[in-house]
From TrEMBL:
GO terms, molecular function: GTP binding
UniProt name for this protein: AIG1-type G domain-containing protein
Occurrences of domain AIG1-type G (ranges): 18-181, 213-380, 423-587
Keyword terms of this UniProt record: GTP-binding, Nucleotide-binding
Phylogenetic lineage: Eukaryota, Metazoa, Chordata, Craniata, Vertebrata
Domain of life (superkingdom): Eukaryota
Organism: Oryzias latipes
Pfam families per record: AIG1 (PF04548)
Protein backbone atom coordinates (compact mmCIF):
# COMPACT_ATOMS: atom_id res chain seq x y z
CA UNK A 1 0.00 0.00 0.00
CA UNK A 2 1.30 3.46 -0.85
CA UNK A 3 2.48 5.47 2.11
CA UNK A 4 0.46 8.49 1.07
CA UNK A 5 -2.87 6.74 0.64
CA UNK A 6 -5.18 8.27 3.21
CA UNK A 7 -8.01 7.43 5.50
CA UNK A 8 -10.28 10.08 7.00
CA UNK A 9 -11.25 10.33 10.65
CA UNK A 10 -14.03 12.48 12.09
CA UNK A 11 -12.69 14.21 15.16
CA UNK A 12 -14.18 14.45 18.60
CA UNK A 13 -15.08 18.11 18.96
CA UNK A 14 -13.18 18.37 22.24
CA UNK A 15 -9.80 17.14 20.94
CA UNK A 16 -7.11 19.01 19.04
CA UNK A 17 -3.78 17.38 18.18
CA UNK A 18 -0.96 19.68 17.06
CA UNK A 19 2.54 18.79 15.83
CA UNK A 20 5.34 21.38 15.95
CA UNK A 21 8.06 21.14 13.28
CA UNK A 22 10.74 23.73 12.55
CA UNK A 23 14.35 24.85 12.56
CA UNK A 24 14.55 26.49 15.99
CA UNK A 25 13.93 24.68 19.30
CA UNK A 26 13.31 27.76 21.54
CA UNK A 27 10.76 29.10 19.07
CA UNK A 28 8.91 25.78 18.95
CA UNK A 29 8.82 25.69 22.75
CA UNK A 30 7.56 29.28 22.84
CA UNK A 31 4.72 28.48 20.43
CA UNK A 32 3.86 25.44 22.54
CA UNK A 33 3.72 27.65 25.62
CA UNK A 34 1.41 30.11 23.86
CA UNK A 35 -0.97 27.28 22.95
CA UNK A 36 -0.97 25.85 26.45
CA UNK A 37 -1.22 29.19 28.16
CA UNK A 38 1.69 28.32 30.47
CA UNK A 39 5.35 27.33 30.37
CA UNK A 40 4.56 23.64 30.33
CA UNK A 41 6.07 22.75 26.96
CA UNK A 42 9.41 24.47 27.55
CA UNK A 43 12.51 22.39 27.90
CA UNK A 44 15.73 24.40 27.97
CA UNK A 45 17.73 21.48 26.64
CA UNK A 46 16.75 20.23 23.21
CA UNK A 47 16.17 16.48 23.02
CA UNK A 48 16.47 13.95 20.22
CA UNK A 49 12.97 12.60 20.78
CA UNK A 50 9.41 13.84 20.47
CA UNK A 51 7.90 15.48 23.57
CA UNK A 52 4.16 15.26 24.17
CA UNK A 53 2.21 17.62 26.45
CA UNK A 54 -1.53 17.36 27.12
CA UNK A 55 -3.77 19.92 28.76
CA UNK A 56 -7.41 21.05 28.81
CA UNK A 57 -7.50 24.49 27.14
CA UNK A 58 -10.69 26.37 26.26
CA UNK A 59 -12.76 23.19 26.67
CA UNK A 60 -10.47 21.31 24.30
CA UNK A 61 -8.20 18.37 25.06
CA UNK A 62 -5.07 19.89 23.58
CA UNK A 63 -2.25 17.50 22.60
CA UNK A 64 1.04 19.19 21.66
CA UNK A 65 3.81 17.07 20.11
CA UNK A 66 7.09 18.99 19.90
CA UNK A 67 9.48 17.25 17.52
CA UNK A 68 13.30 17.36 17.66
CA UNK A 69 15.13 19.31 14.95
CA UNK A 70 14.04 17.11 12.05
CA UNK A 71 15.40 19.64 9.53
CA UNK A 72 19.00 19.29 10.70
CA UNK A 73 21.58 16.99 9.12
CA UNK A 74 22.07 14.90 12.27
CA UNK A 75 19.27 12.43 11.47
CA UNK A 76 19.48 9.76 8.76
CA UNK A 77 16.43 8.94 6.66
CA UNK A 78 15.72 5.92 8.87
CA UNK A 79 15.94 8.03 12.01
CA UNK A 80 13.56 10.60 10.51
CA UNK A 81 11.06 7.86 9.74
CA UNK A 82 11.35 6.55 13.30
CA UNK A 83 10.64 10.04 14.69
CA UNK A 84 7.65 10.33 12.36
CA UNK A 85 6.31 7.00 13.62
CA UNK A 86 6.75 8.18 17.21
CA UNK A 87 5.04 11.47 16.37
CA UNK A 88 2.04 9.60 14.96
CA UNK A 89 1.87 7.34 17.99
CA UNK A 90 1.78 10.35 20.33
CA UNK A 91 -0.84 12.12 18.23
CA UNK A 92 -2.94 9.03 17.43
CA UNK A 93 -5.12 8.70 15.50
CA UNK A 94 -3.29 11.54 13.70
CA UNK A 95 -2.42 15.25 13.83
CA UNK A 96 -5.09 17.84 13.11
CA UNK A 97 -2.65 20.67 12.48
CA UNK A 98 1.06 20.90 11.62
CA UNK A 99 2.61 24.11 12.93
CA UNK A 100 5.72 24.90 10.89
CA UNK A 101 7.65 27.11 13.30
CA UNK A 102 10.33 28.77 11.17
CA UNK A 103 13.26 31.10 11.72
CA UNK A 104 13.24 32.84 8.30
CA UNK A 105 16.81 34.15 8.50
CA UNK A 106 18.16 30.62 9.00
CA UNK A 107 15.66 28.76 6.82
CA UNK A 108 17.41 27.41 3.73
CA UNK A 109 16.38 25.68 0.51
CA UNK A 110 17.67 22.40 2.02
CA UNK A 111 15.40 22.96 5.03
CA UNK A 112 12.45 23.48 2.73
CA UNK A 113 13.20 20.34 0.74
CA UNK A 114 13.47 18.24 3.89
CA UNK A 115 10.31 19.77 5.40
CA UNK A 116 8.35 18.99 2.22
CA UNK A 117 9.75 15.43 2.26
CA UNK A 118 8.59 14.97 5.86
CA UNK A 119 5.08 16.33 5.25
CA UNK A 120 4.64 14.31 2.06
CA UNK A 121 5.64 11.14 3.91
CA UNK A 122 3.05 11.91 6.58
CA UNK A 123 0.33 12.32 3.97
CA UNK A 124 -0.42 13.93 0.62
CA UNK A 125 -2.98 16.02 2.54
CA UNK A 126 -0.51 17.30 5.15
CA UNK A 127 0.02 20.73 3.56
CA UNK A 128 -3.71 21.46 3.81
CA UNK A 129 -3.36 21.00 7.57
CA UNK A 130 -0.24 23.18 7.90
CA UNK A 131 0.23 26.70 9.25
CA UNK A 132 3.54 28.60 9.08
CA UNK A 133 4.26 30.29 12.41
CA UNK A 134 6.92 32.99 12.85
CA UNK A 135 8.05 34.30 16.22
CA UNK A 136 9.10 37.96 16.23
CA UNK A 137 9.46 40.82 18.72
CA UNK A 138 9.78 43.50 16.04
CA UNK A 139 6.96 45.85 15.08
CA UNK A 140 8.10 46.06 11.45
CA UNK A 141 7.68 42.32 10.94
CA UNK A 142 5.33 42.72 7.95
CA UNK A 143 8.03 44.61 6.06
CA UNK A 144 10.59 41.99 7.03
CA UNK A 145 8.29 39.20 5.87
CA UNK A 146 7.86 40.87 2.47
CA UNK A 147 11.65 40.83 2.10
CA UNK A 148 11.78 37.19 3.15
CA UNK A 149 9.14 36.38 0.53
CA UNK A 150 11.56 37.44 -2.18
CA UNK A 151 13.35 34.17 -1.38
CA UNK A 152 11.80 31.57 -3.68
CA UNK A 153 11.96 28.66 -1.20
CA UNK A 154 9.98 30.55 1.47
CA UNK A 155 7.46 31.84 -1.05
CA UNK A 156 7.00 28.35 -2.44
CA UNK A 157 6.41 26.89 1.03
CA UNK A 158 3.87 29.58 1.95
CA UNK A 159 1.98 28.85 -1.25
CA UNK A 160 1.70 25.17 -0.32
CA UNK A 161 0.41 25.85 3.24
CA UNK A 162 -2.83 27.33 4.53
CA UNK A 163 -1.42 30.64 5.78
CA UNK A 164 1.21 32.38 7.92
CA UNK A 165 0.75 33.57 11.50
CA UNK A 166 2.93 35.81 13.68
CA UNK A 167 3.40 35.18 17.40
CA UNK A 168 5.09 37.47 19.90
CA UNK A 169 5.12 38.16 23.64
CA UNK A 170 1.60 39.66 23.48
CA UNK A 171 -0.05 36.81 21.54
CA UNK A 172 -2.64 35.12 23.70
CA UNK A 173 -3.70 31.48 23.63
CA UNK A 174 -7.20 32.07 22.27
CA UNK A 175 -5.91 34.05 19.30
CA UNK A 176 -3.65 31.23 18.19
CA UNK A 177 -6.35 28.63 18.86
CA UNK A 178 -8.67 30.62 16.57
CA UNK A 179 -6.15 30.19 13.76
CA UNK A 180 -6.01 26.44 14.38
CA UNK A 181 -9.79 26.27 14.43
CA UNK A 182 -9.87 27.93 10.98
CA UNK A 183 -7.62 25.17 9.62
CA UNK A 184 -9.74 22.45 11.24
CA UNK A 185 -12.89 23.97 9.73
CA UNK A 186 -11.25 24.38 6.31
CA UNK A 187 -10.60 20.64 6.35
CA UNK A 188 -14.17 19.79 7.28
CA UNK A 189 -13.13 18.91 10.84
CA UNK A 190 -11.42 15.85 9.42
CA UNK A 191 -8.01 14.51 10.32
CA UNK A 192 -5.94 12.89 7.61
CA UNK A 193 -3.41 10.23 8.44
CA UNK A 194 -1.32 7.75 6.47
CA UNK A 195 -3.10 4.42 6.38
CA UNK A 196 0.31 2.75 6.40
CA UNK A 197 0.74 3.92 10.00
CA UNK A 198 -2.69 3.36 11.51
CA UNK A 199 -5.96 1.86 10.43
CA UNK A 200 -8.93 2.60 12.66
CA UNK A 201 -12.28 4.36 12.61
CA UNK A 202 -14.37 6.63 14.79
CA UNK A 203 -17.93 5.40 14.85
CA UNK A 204 -21.51 6.03 16.09
CA UNK A 205 -22.77 5.97 19.69
CA UNK A 206 -22.78 2.89 21.88
CA UNK A 207 -25.78 0.65 21.40
CA UNK A 208 -28.22 0.43 24.29
CA UNK A 209 -27.73 -3.35 24.70
CA UNK A 210 -23.92 -3.20 24.59
CA UNK A 211 -21.74 -4.88 27.15
CA UNK A 212 -18.00 -4.80 27.81
CA UNK A 213 -16.45 -8.22 27.21
CA UNK A 214 -12.78 -7.95 28.11
CA UNK A 215 -9.95 -10.47 27.73
CA UNK A 216 -6.67 -9.96 29.62
CA UNK A 217 -3.53 -11.21 27.83
CA UNK A 218 0.04 -11.16 29.12
CA UNK A 219 2.77 -12.94 31.00
CA UNK A 220 2.38 -11.78 34.62
CA UNK A 221 -0.35 -13.69 36.44
CA UNK A 222 -0.38 -11.39 39.46
CA UNK A 223 -0.72 -8.23 37.36
CA UNK A 224 -3.56 -9.72 35.32
CA UNK A 225 -5.34 -10.64 38.54
CA UNK A 226 -4.84 -7.13 39.96
CA UNK A 227 -6.18 -5.54 36.78
CA UNK A 228 -9.19 -7.87 36.63
CA UNK A 229 -10.10 -7.04 40.24
CA UNK A 230 -9.56 -3.34 39.55
CA UNK A 231 -11.92 -3.32 36.55
CA UNK A 232 -14.77 -5.06 38.39
CA UNK A 233 -14.22 -3.08 41.58
CA UNK A 234 -17.53 -4.15 43.12
CA UNK A 235 -16.63 -7.83 43.27
CA UNK A 236 -16.92 -9.32 46.73
CA UNK A 237 -14.41 -12.01 45.81
CA UNK A 238 -11.25 -11.58 43.77
CA UNK A 239 -10.25 -13.60 40.72
CA UNK A 240 -8.27 -16.59 41.84
CA UNK A 241 -4.82 -16.75 40.29
CA UNK A 242 -4.63 -19.57 37.72
CA UNK A 243 -1.55 -20.48 35.73
CA UNK A 244 -3.28 -23.32 33.88
CA UNK A 245 -6.57 -22.21 32.39
CA UNK A 246 -8.70 -19.14 31.67
CA UNK A 247 -11.10 -17.84 34.33
CA UNK A 248 -13.80 -15.18 34.14
CA UNK A 249 -15.94 -12.97 36.35
CA UNK A 250 -18.91 -10.67 35.73
CA UNK A 251 -19.95 -7.33 37.10
CA UNK A 252 -21.22 -3.89 36.04
CA UNK A 253 -19.88 -0.43 35.27
CA UNK A 254 -22.87 1.75 35.91
CA UNK A 255 -25.61 0.10 33.87
CA UNK A 256 -23.22 -1.60 31.46
CA UNK A 257 -22.63 -5.35 32.03
CA UNK A 258 -18.99 -6.43 32.33
CA UNK A 259 -17.28 -9.76 31.68
CA UNK A 260 -13.55 -10.03 32.33
CA UNK A 261 -11.59 -13.11 31.23
CA UNK A 262 -8.09 -13.71 32.59
CA UNK A 263 -6.06 -15.99 30.34
CA UNK A 264 -2.99 -17.98 31.44
CA UNK A 265 0.56 -17.18 30.31
CA UNK A 266 0.64 -18.14 26.62
CA UNK A 267 4.33 -17.53 26.06
CA UNK A 268 6.32 -20.72 25.42
CA UNK A 269 3.13 -22.82 25.31
CA UNK A 270 2.18 -25.32 22.61
CA UNK A 271 -0.02 -24.34 19.68
CA UNK A 272 -2.82 -26.63 20.82
CA UNK A 273 -2.83 -25.22 24.35
CA UNK A 274 -2.97 -21.65 23.02
CA UNK A 275 -5.80 -22.44 20.62
CA UNK A 276 -7.76 -24.25 23.33
CA UNK A 277 -7.50 -21.34 25.79
CA UNK A 278 -8.32 -18.66 23.19
CA UNK A 279 -11.44 -20.62 22.23
CA UNK A 280 -12.31 -20.94 25.94
CA UNK A 281 -11.91 -17.18 26.48
CA UNK A 282 -14.26 -16.48 23.55
CA UNK A 283 -16.81 -18.95 24.93
CA UNK A 284 -16.68 -17.25 28.33
CA UNK A 285 -17.85 -13.93 26.85
CA UNK A 286 -20.20 -14.88 24.05
CA UNK A 287 -20.83 -13.81 21.36
CA UNK A 288 -17.16 -12.77 21.63
CA UNK A 289 -14.81 -10.25 23.30
CA UNK A 290 -14.92 -6.61 22.21
CA UNK A 291 -11.82 -5.42 24.13
CA UNK A 292 -8.38 -7.04 24.48
CA UNK A 293 -6.03 -5.68 27.15
CA UNK A 294 -2.37 -6.51 26.46
CA UNK A 295 -0.31 -6.35 29.67
CA UNK A 296 3.39 -5.62 29.19
CA UNK A 297 6.38 -4.41 31.19
CA UNK A 298 7.54 -1.65 28.80
CA UNK A 299 11.24 -1.66 29.70
CA UNK A 300 11.52 -5.46 29.30
CA UNK A 301 9.25 -5.98 26.29
CA UNK A 302 11.22 -7.72 23.55
CA UNK A 303 10.68 -8.17 19.83
CA UNK A 304 10.07 -11.88 20.44
CA UNK A 305 7.20 -11.06 22.81
CA UNK A 306 5.74 -8.57 20.35
CA UNK A 307 5.72 -11.18 17.60
CA UNK A 308 4.15 -13.68 19.97
CA UNK A 309 1.37 -11.19 20.83
CA UNK A 310 0.72 -10.65 17.11
CA UNK A 311 0.43 -14.39 16.52
CA UNK A 312 -1.85 -14.87 19.52
CA UNK A 313 -4.11 -12.03 18.40
CA UNK A 314 -4.33 -13.56 14.93
CA UNK A 315 -6.29 -16.41 16.54
CA UNK A 316 -9.15 -14.02 17.27
CA UNK A 317 -9.67 -12.34 13.88
CA UNK A 318 -7.98 -9.91 11.51
CA UNK A 319 -9.37 -6.87 13.40
CA UNK A 320 -7.96 -7.92 16.79
CA UNK A 321 -5.60 -4.92 17.10
CA UNK A 322 -8.51 -2.52 16.53
CA UNK A 323 -10.03 -3.91 19.74
CA UNK A 324 -6.75 -3.86 21.69
CA UNK A 325 -5.11 -1.55 24.24
CA UNK A 326 -1.68 -1.83 25.83
CA UNK A 327 -1.61 -1.83 29.64
CA UNK A 328 1.74 -0.87 31.20
CA UNK A 329 2.23 -2.96 34.33
CA UNK A 330 5.28 -0.94 35.45
CA UNK A 331 6.68 2.53 34.86
CA UNK A 332 9.83 2.89 32.82
CA UNK A 333 11.19 3.67 29.38
CA UNK A 334 9.55 1.85 26.49
CA UNK A 335 11.56 -0.45 24.25
CA UNK A 336 11.29 -0.12 20.48
CA UNK A 337 9.15 -3.27 20.44
CA UNK A 338 6.79 -1.78 23.04
CA UNK A 339 6.38 1.29 20.84
CA UNK A 340 5.66 -0.92 17.84
CA UNK A 341 2.95 -2.72 19.79
CA UNK A 342 1.47 0.63 20.82
CA UNK A 343 1.46 1.72 17.19
CA UNK A 344 -0.37 -1.46 16.19
CA UNK A 345 -2.99 -0.56 18.84
CA UNK A 346 -3.38 2.98 17.45
CA UNK A 347 -1.49 4.38 20.44
CA UNK A 348 -4.04 3.23 23.00
CA UNK A 349 -2.44 2.70 26.40
CA UNK A 350 -3.11 2.77 30.13
CA UNK A 351 -0.63 2.64 33.00
CA UNK A 352 -1.56 0.62 36.08
CA UNK A 353 0.36 3.14 38.20
CA UNK A 354 -2.37 5.70 37.43
CA UNK A 355 -4.86 3.67 39.48
CA UNK A 356 -7.66 5.64 37.85
CA UNK A 357 -10.71 3.41 37.40
CA UNK A 358 -12.81 6.03 35.60
CA UNK A 359 -10.03 6.78 33.11
CA UNK A 360 -9.52 3.10 32.31
CA UNK A 361 -13.21 2.43 31.82
CA UNK A 362 -13.57 5.47 29.55
CA UNK A 363 -10.76 4.09 27.39
CA UNK A 364 -12.47 0.69 27.24
CA UNK A 365 -15.74 2.40 26.34
CA UNK A 366 -14.04 4.31 23.54
CA UNK A 367 -12.71 1.07 22.01
CA UNK A 368 -16.24 -0.37 21.97
CA UNK A 369 -17.57 2.86 20.44
CA UNK A 370 -14.93 2.95 17.73
CA UNK A 371 -15.71 -0.60 16.67
CA UNK A 372 -19.48 -0.03 16.45
CA UNK A 373 -20.22 -2.76 18.96
CA UNK A 374 -18.50 -5.43 16.83
CA UNK A 375 -16.69 -8.30 18.54
CA UNK A 376 -13.96 -10.87 17.92
CA UNK A 377 -14.32 -14.56 17.21
CA UNK A 378 -12.03 -17.56 17.34
CA UNK A 379 -10.37 -18.27 13.98
CA UNK A 380 -9.86 -22.02 14.32
CA UNK A 381 -8.12 -22.38 10.96
CA UNK A 382 -5.20 -20.20 12.04
CA UNK A 383 -2.08 -22.04 13.18
CA UNK A 384 0.17 -20.16 15.59
CA UNK A 385 3.54 -20.77 13.93
CA UNK A 386 2.31 -20.16 10.39
CA UNK A 387 1.55 -16.51 10.94
CA UNK A 388 5.07 -15.23 10.33
CA UNK A 389 5.59 -12.03 8.34
CA UNK A 390 8.24 -12.27 5.63
CA UNK A 391 11.25 -10.06 4.92
CA UNK A 392 12.96 -10.79 1.60
CA UNK A 393 16.47 -9.37 1.13
CA UNK A 394 18.87 -9.38 -1.83
CA UNK A 395 22.52 -8.62 -1.07
CA UNK A 396 24.60 -7.15 -3.87
CA UNK A 397 27.97 -5.53 -4.45
CA UNK A 398 31.44 -6.46 -5.66
CA UNK A 399 32.87 -7.26 -2.19
CA UNK A 400 32.03 -10.95 -1.95
CA UNK A 401 33.75 -11.64 1.44
CA UNK A 402 31.87 -8.82 3.21
CA UNK A 403 28.62 -9.74 1.45
CA UNK A 404 28.93 -13.38 2.46
CA UNK A 405 29.81 -12.45 6.04
CA UNK A 406 26.68 -10.28 6.31
CA UNK A 407 24.58 -13.17 4.94
CA UNK A 408 26.15 -15.62 7.39
CA UNK A 409 25.60 -13.23 10.30
CA UNK A 410 21.90 -12.90 9.41
CA UNK A 411 21.28 -16.58 8.68
CA UNK A 412 23.56 -18.23 11.26
CA UNK A 413 23.58 -22.04 10.89
CA UNK A 414 20.96 -21.80 8.10
CA UNK A 415 23.50 -20.29 5.69
CA UNK A 416 24.19 -22.34 2.55
CA UNK A 417 27.29 -21.50 0.48
CA UNK A 418 26.68 -20.18 -3.00
CA UNK A 419 27.18 -22.70 -5.80
CA UNK A 420 30.58 -22.56 -7.59
CA UNK A 421 29.03 -21.08 -10.75
CA UNK A 422 28.18 -17.93 -8.81
CA UNK A 423 24.44 -18.52 -9.25
CA UNK A 424 21.88 -17.07 -6.82
CA UNK A 425 20.85 -19.17 -3.79
CA UNK A 426 18.03 -18.37 -1.41
CA UNK A 427 18.49 -19.08 2.31
CA UNK A 428 15.74 -18.88 4.94
CA UNK A 429 15.75 -18.33 8.68
CA UNK A 430 13.18 -17.41 11.33
CA UNK A 431 14.64 -14.40 13.13
CA UNK A 432 13.06 -11.79 15.43
CA UNK A 433 9.65 -13.27 14.65
CA UNK A 434 10.21 -12.83 10.89
CA UNK A 435 10.65 -15.37 8.14
CA UNK A 436 13.81 -13.83 6.65
CA UNK A 437 15.07 -14.83 3.21
CA UNK A 438 18.49 -13.78 1.91
CA UNK A 439 19.65 -13.99 -1.70
CA UNK A 440 23.27 -13.20 -2.60
CA UNK A 441 23.50 -11.62 -6.04
CA UNK A 442 26.94 -12.17 -7.60
CA UNK A 443 28.74 -9.13 -9.14
CA UNK A 444 27.20 -8.25 -12.50
CA UNK A 445 29.23 -5.46 -14.10
CA UNK A 446 31.77 -7.76 -15.83
CA UNK A 447 29.28 -10.40 -16.98
CA UNK A 448 27.85 -10.73 -20.52
CA UNK A 449 24.47 -9.05 -21.01
CA UNK A 450 22.50 -12.30 -21.33
CA UNK A 451 23.99 -13.64 -18.09
CA UNK A 452 23.28 -10.35 -16.33
CA UNK A 453 19.62 -10.54 -17.33
CA UNK A 454 19.28 -14.20 -16.38
CA UNK A 455 20.96 -13.80 -12.97
CA UNK A 456 19.18 -10.55 -12.06
CA UNK A 457 15.75 -11.98 -12.93
CA UNK A 458 16.43 -15.10 -10.84
CA UNK A 459 17.44 -12.99 -7.81
CA UNK A 460 13.96 -11.43 -7.87
CA UNK A 461 12.00 -14.57 -8.79
CA UNK A 462 13.43 -16.42 -5.77
CA UNK A 463 11.42 -14.03 -3.56
CA UNK A 464 8.11 -14.57 -5.36
CA UNK A 465 5.24 -14.17 -4.77
CA UNK A 466 5.93 -11.53 -2.09
CA UNK A 467 8.79 -9.84 -3.97
CA UNK A 468 12.02 -8.26 -2.74
CA UNK A 469 11.56 -5.94 0.24
CA UNK A 470 15.10 -4.53 0.22
CA UNK A 471 18.15 -4.63 -2.01
CA UNK A 472 21.18 -4.22 0.26
CA UNK A 473 24.44 -2.86 -1.14
CA UNK A 474 27.28 -4.12 1.08
CA UNK A 475 30.37 -1.89 1.25
CA UNK A 476 33.30 -1.72 3.68
CA UNK A 477 34.05 1.74 5.04
CA UNK A 478 36.77 3.20 2.82
CA UNK A 479 37.38 4.89 -0.54
CA UNK A 480 35.20 3.56 -3.35
CA UNK A 481 37.06 1.98 -6.28
CA UNK A 482 35.71 2.32 -9.81
CA UNK A 483 34.34 -1.24 -9.82
CA UNK A 484 31.91 -0.44 -6.98
CA UNK A 485 30.56 2.55 -8.89
CA UNK A 486 30.35 0.51 -12.10
CA UNK A 487 28.41 -2.19 -10.24
CA UNK A 488 25.89 0.40 -9.04
CA UNK A 489 25.41 1.66 -12.62
CA UNK A 490 24.90 -1.91 -13.85
CA UNK A 491 22.32 -2.62 -11.13
CA UNK A 492 20.39 0.57 -11.87
CA UNK A 493 20.52 -0.08 -15.61
CA UNK A 494 19.38 -3.69 -15.20
CA UNK A 495 16.69 -3.31 -12.53
CA UNK A 496 15.64 0.21 -13.55
CA UNK A 497 15.81 3.46 -11.60
CA UNK A 498 12.89 2.23 -9.46
CA UNK A 499 15.33 -0.11 -7.69
CA UNK A 500 16.69 2.96 -5.87
CA UNK A 501 13.45 3.14 -3.88
CA UNK A 502 14.15 -0.36 -2.53
CA UNK A 503 17.91 0.00 -1.92
CA UNK A 504 19.76 0.60 1.32
CA UNK A 505 23.49 0.56 1.98
CA UNK A 506 25.24 -1.41 4.72
CA UNK A 507 28.72 -0.11 5.54
CA UNK A 508 30.62 -2.89 7.29
CA UNK A 509 33.17 -2.30 10.04
CA UNK A 510 34.78 -4.45 12.72
CA UNK A 511 34.78 -1.77 15.42
CA UNK A 512 32.19 0.43 17.14
CA UNK A 513 29.98 1.88 14.33
CA UNK A 514 29.65 5.16 16.25
CA UNK A 515 33.42 5.82 16.14
CA UNK A 516 33.70 9.53 15.18
CA UNK A 517 36.28 8.94 12.43
CA UNK A 518 34.00 6.41 10.71
CA UNK A 519 30.90 8.62 10.93
CA UNK A 520 32.88 11.63 9.70
CA UNK A 521 34.36 9.71 6.76
CA UNK A 522 30.94 8.59 5.52
CA UNK A 523 29.44 12.06 5.86
CA UNK A 524 32.35 13.86 4.17
CA UNK A 525 33.46 11.48 1.40
CA UNK A 526 31.90 12.82 -1.81
CA UNK A 527 31.75 9.47 -3.65
CA UNK A 528 30.02 7.78 -0.71
CA UNK A 529 27.57 10.64 -0.28
CA UNK A 530 26.73 10.49 -3.98
CA UNK A 531 25.86 6.79 -3.72
CA UNK A 532 23.91 7.38 -0.49
CA UNK A 533 21.87 10.13 -2.13
CA UNK A 534 21.05 7.90 -5.09
CA UNK A 535 19.56 5.43 -2.57
CA UNK A 536 17.51 8.07 -0.75
CA UNK A 537 20.06 8.50 2.06
CA UNK A 538 19.21 5.08 3.49
CA UNK A 539 22.26 3.51 5.11
CA UNK A 540 23.43 1.95 8.34
CA UNK A 541 26.90 1.19 9.71
CA UNK A 542 27.12 -2.44 10.80
CA UNK A 543 29.72 -4.17 12.95
CA UNK A 544 29.74 -7.54 11.21
CA UNK A 545 31.28 -9.16 14.30
CA UNK A 546 28.38 -8.01 16.50
CA UNK A 547 25.42 -10.34 15.92
CA UNK A 548 23.20 -8.16 18.12
CA UNK A 549 23.29 -5.47 15.41
CA UNK A 550 21.48 -7.76 12.98
CA UNK A 551 18.17 -6.78 14.59
CA UNK A 552 19.00 -3.14 13.68
CA UNK A 553 19.56 -4.17 10.07
CA UNK A 554 16.24 -6.02 9.94
CA UNK A 555 14.46 -3.10 11.60
CA UNK A 556 15.94 -0.71 9.02
CA UNK A 557 14.76 -2.99 6.19
CA UNK A 558 11.26 -3.21 7.71
CA UNK A 559 11.07 0.57 8.09
CA UNK A 560 12.09 1.03 4.46
CA UNK A 561 9.44 -1.49 3.40
CA UNK A 562 6.85 0.36 5.50
CA UNK A 563 7.51 3.72 3.84
CA UNK A 564 7.64 2.67 0.20
CA UNK A 565 6.14 5.37 -2.01
CA UNK A 566 5.15 3.28 -5.01
CA UNK A 567 4.52 -0.30 -3.90
CA UNK A 568 5.30 -2.64 -1.03
CA UNK A 569 7.94 -4.76 -2.84
CA UNK A 570 9.94 -5.21 -6.05
CA UNK A 571 8.45 -8.21 -7.86
CA UNK A 572 9.11 -10.12 -11.07
CA UNK A 573 6.18 -8.17 -12.52
CA UNK A 574 8.02 -4.93 -11.71
CA UNK A 575 11.16 -6.30 -13.36
CA UNK A 576 9.38 -7.43 -16.54
CA UNK A 577 7.47 -4.16 -16.92
CA UNK A 578 10.70 -2.19 -16.64
CA UNK A 579 12.40 -4.37 -19.27
CA UNK A 580 9.46 -3.82 -21.64
CA UNK A 581 9.62 -0.10 -20.98
CA UNK A 582 13.35 -0.07 -21.82
CA UNK A 583 12.72 -2.01 -25.04
CA UNK A 584 9.96 0.43 -25.98
CA UNK A 585 12.29 3.39 -25.43
CA UNK A 586 15.02 1.65 -27.45
CA UNK A 587 12.62 0.93 -30.34
CA UNK A 588 11.42 4.53 -30.33
CA UNK A 589 15.02 5.75 -30.39
CA UNK A 590 15.83 3.53 -33.40
CA UNK A 591 12.73 4.76 -35.24
CA UNK A 592 13.76 8.37 -34.64
CA UNK A 593 17.24 7.64 -36.01
CA UNK A 594 15.74 5.98 -39.09
CA UNK A 595 13.50 9.01 -39.67
CA UNK A 596 16.52 11.32 -39.48
CA UNK A 597 18.46 9.16 -41.95
CA UNK A 598 15.53 9.23 -44.41
CA UNK A 599 15.41 13.03 -44.13
Amino acid sequence: MSHNSTVVFFLPVSELRVVLIGNNWPDRCFVGDVLLGASLARNKRETDSCLCTKRLVDNKNLVIVNTPDLLSDKFTSFQLLKHMNECLRLSAPGPNVFLLVLKPRNFTEDHKQKLCWILEHFSAEAFKHSLIVIRSSREDFSEMWERFMTLSHLADLEEKCRSTFLVNQTTDTLKLLEQLELIVRANGRKSVICKAFLDSAITPPLYADASFRIVLLGKGEEKKTQLGNFIVDRWHRSIKISVVTSVFKSGKWGDIPLTVVKTPNFFHQSDEMIKTEIKRSVDFCKPGPNVLLLLIKPSKFTEKKRRAFSSILSLFSEDAFKHSMVVMTHDGAETASARELLKACDGRQYSMSEHNHQSLMKMIEKIVLQNEGSFLTFEEAVVYKENKPTLNLVLWGTRQPEKTLVAKTILGPNYMDAVPSGDCVRNLRELCGLCVSVVELPPLHKKPHDEVMKTSFKSVSLSDPEGVDAFILVLPVGPLPDEDQEELKTIQSTFGSQVNDFTMIVFTVEVDPTTPTIVKFIKENKDIQKICQSCGGRYIILNIRNKQQISELLEAAEIMKHFQKSQMSYTTKTYICLQREKESIKDEYILNLEDKLED
